[in-house]
Description:
The structure is a homodimer.
Chain A: H1 2-41, H2 44-75, H3 79-111, H4 119-144, H5 148-178, H6 183-215, H7 229-232
Amino acid sequence: MAAEHIVKAFDSDLQVLSCSVAEMGGLAEKQIADALKALFTHDRDLAREVIGRDLDLDRFQQAIEQKTILTLARRQPMAVDLREIVAALRIANDLERIGDLAKNVAKRVVVLDDVGAPPQLMRGLERMTNLTLSQLNQVLDSYSNRDLSAALTVWRQDEQIDAICTSLFRELLTYMMEDPHYITFCIHVMFSAKNIERIGDHATNIAETVYYIMEGRPITEQRPKRDTTALHVT
Amino acid sequence: MAAEHIVKAFDSDLQVLSCSVAEMGGLAEKQIADALKALFTHDRDLAREVIGRDLDLDRFQQAIEQKTILTLARRQPMAVDLREIVAALRIANDLERIGDLAKNVAKRVVVLDDVGAPPQLMRGLERMTNLTLSQLNQVLDSYSNRDLSAALTVWRQDEQIDAICTSLFRELLTYMMEDPHYITFCIHVMFSAKNIERIGDHATNIAETVYYIMEGRPITEQRPKRDTTALHVT
Lengths: 234, 234
């Protein structure tokens, strides 16, 4: 009876953890969507909201860390249960970093002037954002459903984000060279693009964590990687 | 007798963890120093070494995570012991991120042409690097010695790095505006400077973790913060 009680309490601990991570994931998605919406529409008020809300993600991470540690120390879990707990810790960490990256974009919006940027520049960034949001959404679903194949799909698709980022950097450089008037604006867009690309990297980290939960080992396959922005600034 | 044995084994677990973190810290310092040395001396071979060695830091982090989790699950530690273990996990995480940031700088070196940059530009970056390395060194010492006051000194000094970064960004912008020939080079320096600034942020995270070990609660004081690079690119 006592043992059964402990098992039930432990299952409920795991469920609470998993729900917290999913809820935190939803907030992180909202932060990215709003930060970029603020950038595209020059909405400084929305950007300030994003900056303010970042604290909520920090608090989520602290709460998940706390819960994780207590569960580890109290329940001495093994095998897949242990991996579930470690996964919650890792994903919360990725989501917190995603929040920081969204906040960084929002900070730029607050100080950025509307210089009437060429629409195709912003279109590249918008495509990157949509793809990244879709990747994050899919990987969070794969975590909720413990869906290995969906996680692997996300993991393999990251190179698309990298490819758009690389071509965007090349385009931005051309604008800067041609008209120094655009330099400041383009630097902001470059840093924002780099932040979105990093969000994509965190989505693939989460995919790796889902793999680790289900397979009990890290992915050994080589991930396709096309981030050559460092190359194409030359 | 059995209890005493367990206590001794636990102390030894903690010592092993603490030593691993210190060793990982030494490697992270070396990675930053070498990445920046490679940048200042246009040494692509050294840059490639840095890129290759990043895997060692990743492995360190995985090993520390593994050890941490096993210790938590096996020993059910409480109070300061629990905080010691959580701290090892957090610091290993910061050091792994620091390694990534150093690797990012090294990647730029591999593709960067020597455009004969104005020496004062590189001097700003060199000052920033030295200050950041000294901050990291001090904070790792404060962890090894469990020295609260040294940790707090590092925590409060981060604004100096931010201030140099801000003034460097302003200078870089001027060069880019005046001569488009410098644009590519200056963008690489900007991204490198931003990476170093982030390394500084991780050093302050470590300072916060030392505080948490010793005081059992997060720092509530408001940290002086002068990162206005987002502002000064406008």
